[in-house]
């Protein structure tokens, strides 16, 4: 009898390890969609942050980040990454298979990214009074962070 229990526990551990391995091997568009589903349905803190950032107006436009990404990307998702519990978070917005064209800072030739993965990451700090403060945001194309000019110009270009 005890031998069957040990085998059962071992089987559960092996299946769990396989599922975790599959999860980490998934592409970001699927993995982060799973994260967003979990966070919006089972994590009240993350759901609150995601709703707040979905409603945030993009600089230089009259649209929200959510409206822009829904219109311009084949798929997009939001998720919250906890850096230090109750202190610092990152809210990630990923867009997949998106085309973005915007001028370079010096006005010469446009920068054109086709069928690419873009990410906007918002740094959030919890203040002593419990409020959340956006302390900065970043723009990445295929995992490479772009300078300040690019993040503002890119979202404005996508919002048009």
Overall description:
The protein is α+β, with helices and mostly antiparallel strands and 160 residues long. It has a 5-stranded antiparallel β-sheet with strand order 1-2-3-4-5. Helix 2 crosses helix 3. The model has no long low-confidence stretch (mean pLDDT 85).
Supply database-style keywords.
alpha+beta, 5-stranded antiparallel beta sheet, 5 helices, 160 residues
DSSP strand tally: 5
Q: What multimeric state do the chains show?
A: single chain
Strand content: 35-45%
The succession of helices and strands, N to C, reads: HHHHEEEEEH
What structural category characterises the helix and strand content?
A: alpha+beta
The radius of gyration over CA amounts to 19 Å
Helix content: 40-55%
In short, what is this structure?
The chain contains 5 helices and 5 strands; from the N terminus they run ααααβββββα.
Outline the secondary-structure elements.
Layout: H1 2-25, H2 28-42, H3 44-54, H4 65-72, E1 75-84, E2 88-103, E3 110-126, E4 132-141, E5 144-146, H5 148-159
Antiparallel strand pairs: 1-2, 2-3, 3-4, 4-5
